Amino acid sequence: MLYLNSKRNLRVAIIAMSNYKRVVSKLIYTKHFFFIIALGSMSLASFSKELRIMEGFMPAELNHSTIEIETPPLSCKLNIIAEQNVIDGVFVDFVLLNQSDSDLSVLTWYTPLEGFLSNLFIVTDKYGEKVAYQGPMVKRAKPTSIDYQLIRAKGNVATMLDLSSVYSLIPGDYNLQLNKKTLQVVENGMPASVYQCQTDTLTFSVQ
Known about the structure:
Immunoglobulin-like, 4-stranded mixed beta sheet, 4-stranded antiparallel beta sheet, 2 helices, 14 strands
């Protein structure tokens, strides 16, 4: 396979193949390169030599570019034991990770970090019906410094909550997901940005 990095060299290649009465069996155009696959008795080495003589052609190296996906500075994670007894409580772990190289302060409002002061989770039974939230709903004024949780660079904070304290759980199978959260973040004393906090859906059973 030969790599032709211009339309001009492509035309030269076709002329060269015509001179030798060979067949270009497939021509594929991509964003950066033309590819020619030549069939016939003429070797690729001979074909390359002909192109060099006619146009000083040198095969171009295919540059492989990589796409870097930016890592969000914050990520959320839930952990839950698959089988729990409602008498002992049904506990879920919430972890908030700071994946950046800077210390971040996160407003804890409406997150598991402040406990059940709002409907934090989506809990559904095996039929897909939502289990009603029965805990407190707190109204807010303006946040103060004590409402923010510091998370060191590459560090995390975690908390454990008892789902059975605010959701009426009876024996059965359930799905659990964090209600989509918008995290307000302060970096170096200045409001930085807001980030979405979402988790995968987990399954657990209550006995």
